[in-house]
Write a structure and sequence with these properties.
mainly alpha; globular; 10 helices; single chain
C-alpha cells in the first residue's frame, strides 16, 4: 500500500476513531464509565511504554552511527524536560487566570482522563480545550508519519499507542466541553474537527520529512520522550490513588496486556514483512 495512504489511514485511526470511541464510551452510565476508565488508563501506560522502549528508541538508534548515540540520548532527556516545562506553564496559566487551587482541580481533571496537557480545569473555556487538543493531535500526526517513514510496522504500532492514550483523553475533553455548556452534538463535532489535525500533521510531515532522513531518528526520540512523559508523569500517578491489592494486581495485569499487545503487533508486522 502507498506509504502516504498508510499514513492517512493510521493517523485517522489515532485521531478520528479515538474520538468516536470516546463518544461511545460517554454513552455508558456514569458509574460504569468511572469504573472502566482507570482500566483503559492502565492499558494505555503499557502501550505507551512498550512502543517507546520496544519500538521507537531501538529504531532511532539503528538509524544513526555509534558516535550519535549520546546525541539521541540527550534528545530523549531534553524532550522529557521540555514536556514537563510546557505542562507546568499550561497549568500555571490556567491557575493564574482561573484562581484554581494548587492541586485540587488539576487532580480532578486527571481522573476524567485529560492526560497530556492538563488543559481540563473546570473553569477553562471550551475553545481553549479545542485549540490545545488540536495542537496535540497535530504533533501526534507528525510522530506517526515519522515512524512510518522509518519503518511501516513501527508506524502501525505507534498509531496504536497514540489511539490508546487518546481515548481516555478524549473522554476527558468531552466531559469538560459538556460542563462548559456545549451540547453533545457540538462537543462531538468540535472534537472530530480537532482530531483531523492528526491527519494534517501526518500529511505535512510526509511531504516535508521524506527527504530529511537525517532528522528522523531525533523525531523518533522526541516521540519516545513524549510517550514516556505521558505514561510516567500523567498516567501512572492516577493509578497510585487506588491502594487495594486487588486494584494493584488489575493495574499490573492491564499494563502487561498493553506491553504484550504492542510486542505482538510488532511481531505480526515483522512476519508480514518477511
Amino acid at each position: 500500500m502507498n506509504l502516504l495512504l498508510l499514513i492517512i489511514v493510521f493517523t485517522a485511526l489515532g485521531g478520528v476513531l479515538s474520538v468516536l470511541a470516546a463518544a461511545l464510551f460517554l454513552l455508558l452510565p456514569d458509574r460504569l464509565r468511572n469504573h472502566v476508565l482507570p482500566h483503559g488508563i492502565s492499558f494505555a501506560i503499557g502501550a505507551l511504554l512498550a512502543v517507546s522502549f520496544w519500538g521507537l528508541i531501538p529504531h532511532a538508534f539503528e538509524e544513526v552511527a555509534p558516535e550519535q548515540f549520546r546525541g539521541l540520548s540527550a534528545t530523549i532527556l531534553a524532550g522529557i524536560l521540555i514536556f514537563f516545562v510546557l505542562e507546568k506553564l499550561l497549568i500555571w496559566r490556567h491557575c493564574h487566570f482561573n484562581a484554581c487551587e494548587a492541586h485540587g482541580e488539576e487532580t480532578q481533571d486527571h481522573d476524567h482522563g485529560s492526560l497530556l496537557h492538563s488543559h481540563g480545569h473546570r473553569h477553562s473555556a471550551g475553545a481553549l480545550i479545542i485549540v490545545g487538543d488540536s495542537i496535540h493531535n497535530f504533533v501526534d500526526g507528525i510522530l506517526i508519519a515519522a515512524a512510518f517513514l522509518t519503518d511501516p510496522k513501527l508506524g502501525m504500532v505507534t498509531s496504536l499507542a497514540v489511539a490508546a492514550h487518546e481515548i481516555p483523553q478524549e473522554v476527558g475533553d468531552f466531559a469538560i466541553l459538556l460542563h462548559n455548556g456545549y451540547t453533545k452534538r457540538k462537543a462531538l463535532a468540535y472534537n472530530i474537527l480537532s482530531s483531523l489535525a492528526t491527519v494534517l500533521g501526518g500529511m505535512l510531515a510526509y511531504f516535508s520529512l521524506e527527504d530529511l532522513d537525517h532528522i528522523l531518528p531525533y523525531i523518533l526520540a522526541l516521540a519516545a520522550s513524549s510517550f514516556i512523559y505521558v505514561a510516567v508523569a500523567d498516567l501512572i500517578p492516577t493509578l497510585h490513588r487506588k491502594t487495594e491489592l486487588k486494584d494493584s494486581l488489575e493495574q499490573i495485569a492491564l499494563i502487561a496486556a498493553g506491553v504484550l499487545l504492542i510486542c505482538a503487533m510488532h511481531g505480526i508486522a515483522h512476519s508480514f514483512e518477511g
